[in-house]
Amino acid sequence: MIIYINDRPCEAQVGNLLLSVAQHNKSHIGYICGGNGICQSCFVYVREGADCLSLPGEEEKAFISDKLFQEGGRLACRTTIVKEGTIRIMTRAETLRRIVLGLNVPGFITYAQTIGYNVVNKLPSGASMLVTRFQTGRLDPIDSIGKIVNGLGPASMLLTNNIVETFSFLQGPVGFIGSASKGAIDMVGGLAGGVFNVVGAPVRGVLDFAGGIAGGVINAASGPVMGLLNVAGGVVSGAINIVGVPVRGVLGAASGALCTVSGGRLHLPGSTCAIHDAPVVNLERVTIKATP
How many structural domains is the chain composed of? Predict the structure, then answer.
């Protein structure tokens, strides 16, 4: 059967991976990880024939957002041809190349926003999936490294062939493509930073709100506690004063008796003597004048 990759006819059979078909036919689908399903370099858009392909697995779902799935996004290293039919796919690199060469600025902005959204939202789940695959033995590190090394040769040949085939018309726009790529990276970084800032704002708000509630609860709790302590202190102080009145009266009477017996020479320490500690009575001065 014949499938089309970037509008180029490629021989394929039922049971083939899309990435394998591209490699055998020297068509352009990126493959950095060698087909281990640990990156998105082999991302493609299925333009026709999605029903002839296998359903997305958990590896693809971990790396591809629902938005990109709706646009036909798949990983070529995880997508198998399950029946014959018309299949047309477009690689990510070819999609970007056509947008740039066509000077499609709105399309480029939409493309960059979509890719940025996917990177920001699917990077955590993709990393988590890799950890799970390593832990469960579904991803062998030695085998993965071997696939990457084995894929370097075909990848370099593929790159060379594409440069030779496209050099004649890429010579002019190559500078524009470079600046556009830089713009895409900057835009993705801006989107990522914006998402983190947007996420950080409610997180900080929640923390501040929780801190405010905690502070309010502590203040609310400390109010009645302080009130109870003040009431208890007042009660204790009042009790001491009440008890102190008869105690001071007894000491004063005992000190007065001792003062009387000793002729005013002895008093109890810390007590008062009604005779000697009595307030001094001010005498009123009267002036008498004699008249001749």
Answer: 1
Helix (H) or strand (E) holding 219: helix 174-261
Query: Is 160 inside a domain boundary?
Result: yes
Confirm whether 181 is domain-assigned.
Answer: no
Distance from C-alpha of 126 to C-alpha of 130, rounded to nearest angstrom: 6
- Tell me the CATH number at 133: 3.10.20.30
Name the residue range of residue 157's domain: 2-171
Residue 150 CB neighbour total at 10 angstroms: 12
Q: Whole-model pTM above 0.70?
A: no
Structural domain contains residue 152: yes
CA distance 209 to 211: 5
Residue 112 falls inside a structural domain: yes
User: What string of pLDDT tens digits covers the 292 residues of the chain?
Assistant: 999 999 999 999 999 999 999 988 888 787 777 677 777 788 999 999 999 999 998 888 888 888 889 989 999 989 999 999 999 999 988 888 888 888 888 888 887 877 777 777 777 777 777 677 777 777 666 666 666 666 665 556 555 555 555 555 554 554 455 445 445 545 544 554 554 455 455 656 655 666 666 666 666 666 676 777 677 777 666 766 676 667 677 677 776 777 777 777 676 776 677 777 666 666 666 677 777 6
Distance from C-alpha of 183 to C-alpha of 189, rounded to nearest angstrom = 10
